[in-house]
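# step 3/5: fold
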Amino acid sequence: MIEGQEGVSWEQWRALGAACDEHGYEALFRSDHYLSVAGHADRGSLDAWTTLAALAAVTSRVRLGTLVSPATFRQPSVLAKSAVTVDQVSGGRAELGIGAGWLEAEHRAYGFPFAETRTRMDVMAEQLEIVARSFADERFSFQGEHYEIEDLDARPKPVQRPRPPIIVGGRGGRRSLALAARWADEYNTFSASVEELRQRRDAFAQAWADAGRDPDSFRFSAMVGVLVGADDAELRERVARLAEWQGSKPAQVLDSLRATGVVGTVDEVAEQLRELEAAGAQRVMLQHLLHDDVDAVELIGRELIPRVA
């Protein structure tokens, strides 16, 4: 999981995609923001879906998706078409994460409407239905408060059938859980301790059951920060680099990752990932903030992934 809004260049995206393709990663996800979340005005952001389409053409195996695309950024038919395009170019490797949008500053800067939370959730609810139905074979119409669709048979259809996975991201709020259970294939949460993760997993399982979904298709995941070293010396070096990049202190980096992420040597991180699995995470998206550190990506693929696969 790469925070693309923090100055990731195309050359760096290409190197990350090649490393993930080569070293056994299931998927490469990216955030969908237009401004630096860390508040650095000098860091640019390539558009998420355009980047994924380009990566689809230069990778062969790794899956590609967003965590998550704000419903406020794109009209739902455009979002669905973008996801289908990546799915077609990649030969069926696209995943679509959807959220309500939260960073007010980028909405103001780029001219996207930023309504109150309830309205943004309403917009996301309509988008989820329209995107899901656009992927399906049946022609449909939709009349909502925010969008109107008339007799649409969106073509081409995705390569993946019945559709590319749809992921809803959130922190366990009742409505996001219900929307995910109704329209999505997976719920992804973040910024959670092991106990919070367990609680959110149980809440989503209940929402999934309440929606009458097949229990065998249930999928719950977590995005967690990661910092790993082949040994203690390499770990300390990466901690120092991340602290400098964040403008913080090494102790703060370690405290944050110990609270809601995974940090340590390969063996230590493997054990922490097993704890997340025991808490209910069926897959984990590792948030790699030092995006120019491809060596760390290779280390995770070469040594960590085989330990937890």
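# step 4/5: annotate
Residues 117-135 form the longest helix (19 residues).
# step 5/5: archive (pending)
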